[in-house]
Structures are given as C-alpha cells and as structure tokens.
Amino acid sequence: MYNLRRNALVCTLCAAAVLAAPLAYAVAGIETAPPEAVERVSPPWQQGANNDAPERGLSFTEPDADNLADFHGDPIHSALALYVGGNYFFAMAPLVHAFEARYPQYKGHVYWETLPPGLLVKQMESAGVVTVGNMTWTVAPDVYLAGLKTVQREIDAGLLQAPAVPYVTNTLTIMVPKNNPAHVERLADLGEPGVRLAMPNPAFEGVARQIKASLENAGGDALVKEVYDTKVNDGSTTLTRIHHRQTPLWIMQGKADAGITWRSEALFQEQAGHPVAHVDIPAANNTIAIYAGALVKGALHVQASRRWLDFIRSPEAQSVFEHYGFTPLQPNAGMSAS
Questions:
Q1: Which of 53, 112, 121, 164 could be bridged to 151 by S-S, CB 3.0 to 4.6 A?
Q2: Under-50 pLDDT residues of the chain
Q3: Helix (H/G/I), strand (E/B), else coil: 151
Q4: How many beta carbons lie within 10 A of that of residue 221, not counting itself?
Q5: Are 9-167+291-328 and 169-280 in the same CATH fold?
Q6: Smallest Cα–Cα separation from 25: which of 232, 252, 195?
C-alpha cells in the first residue's frame, strides 16, 4: 500500500522548525540566557550525532528556528527505514552505529524517524509522505517500533506483518526542573492547582494510557480528571505533540513545573547536563512498558528489516538500552506501552 517511489523528495524547500525555542527563557530562576545556552537546551540536543548520512553538504541547523529533530539520516539513499516511537530517540545513534558495525554494508544508509507512534501510523497510512514546514518528502517504512500492544494492533489492522518482536522494557517517572522548585514528590502532587504540567496528548501518544493508569493507581479517577480534564481546561496542563522533546524543553523554559515521561527520557536529559531531574514513582503506582517491533507489510528492504529485528535483542543493543535505564525483557512483564 506504500508509495514505491520511495525516497523521492516532493519539495526541496528549506526545512522549518519542528520545535521553536524562544531566545529568552527561565532556568532555575534565570530569566534570560546567552545564545549558546539556548542552543544547548534546544532540540535536537545531540549536535548532529543522530544523523547517519556521511556526506552532509551544507550544514544549516538553527535550534530555535530551523531544525528537524525527529528525522535522521539520508532519505534518498536509505537501505533501511525505521519508524521508531520517539521514546528513545537518544538511543538510536548508538544503536545504529552498533548495527552498522555488525553489517557494514548499511553504513550511512539507515534512515529513521522518532515521532509519537500514533503519528507514525498516520504517516504509514499516507504512504510514507510527511511534511515539516516547507519541506515534503516520502520514505515508506521497513520496520515499525513502538509499544507491544500498539504493534500487535497494527498487525491485526494489516499494516504490519507478524510476529511482533518484543525487546526491552521501561517505566514512568516524573520529570521536574533541577532542584524541583514546585516540590513535586508524588503523583498526587500533580493535581495541585498551582503545579503547571506538560502531559502527553492522549489523541496520539500512547503513553497517555499508561500515565492515566498510574494516576488512577495513585489517586483514583479524581486525580485523572484533575490532571487531564480540569487542568487542561484551566490551562495549567498543556498537552504535548512530541512529548519526548516538548516536556523537557518546556520545563527548561520555565513553562512547566513537572511532566510524566518514561524514566529513560529523564535520565538522558540528566546525562546531557540539562537542568532537569526526576522523581521516582513507586512500583505499586508505576507502569511497565514493553517495546516491540515488526516488519511493515510491503517493506522494500526485507532482509535488512529482519536483521534489525534480530539485532535489537542482541547483547550490543541491550547494552545501549541499559545505559539509559531500560531493562531487558523479563518473562511475564506487565503492561505494554504506546
């Protein structure tokens, strides 16, 4: 069902911003920051490390105005295209490098996207066509990776080919600014009227289901409604569109006091030296995510796809995941994510 004219660039106009960070923002009580500090805390954060293209030509990325933070590599010459739920965008570069070390023929030819799983499904349904700002291009996926339940649902819907391949687990945490000025100590604190939240949008971010389950465990339906209804209506909860980038960005800009993310996302921000921290959620209220992948029906690069799905469970890949706080898949693991 996908457009076999894969990788054709429909429009080559300059790329506009995926996320735009203002030049003035608040971090730990500082009202403004110099441009180099703005660049440091603006997506895509890895300063080009998450790009598999060896020949990059003109390098033009303005973090506060023009960047394509969730699109990686060369869309024209790819030999493997991965649609990856954005929960571990930060782990993809080392994963791809390890994959290419095993299979050198793919070096410089892996393309990947790290949008929320629901948006990636919409792109699949649009034959791989995507538009960001003034640029439209087409890359039909070979492999789709998200939460196990989501992957199985898309297998049942006919977009993916069985089997689903699970490979790692994750848990939730509360991301807060460094020093936690709002004194958020537990999930119930998110319902307090004065606490401003950045929360994943239930419309297309599957993690919202897991977050609602954890909120219900901690405070019943009343806490869920307070966070996702009352506070959305009064403006103290802002719903994200790319939660794995917007939550920390809004926290660093002083727009939010807290937000629930996957634990790995908070650890990445802390490892990057950004002024954020996290508050652990007790196991009784937490949610275990199971990540999985599957071959896309009609994939152009079947052999490469099967190699990736085999690699993702390898010791090399598991070591990368563990660095960011993921846990190897255990038998009888709990709920699936996304």
A1: 164
A2: 1-33, 35, 334-336
A3: helix
A4: 10
A5: yes
A6: 252
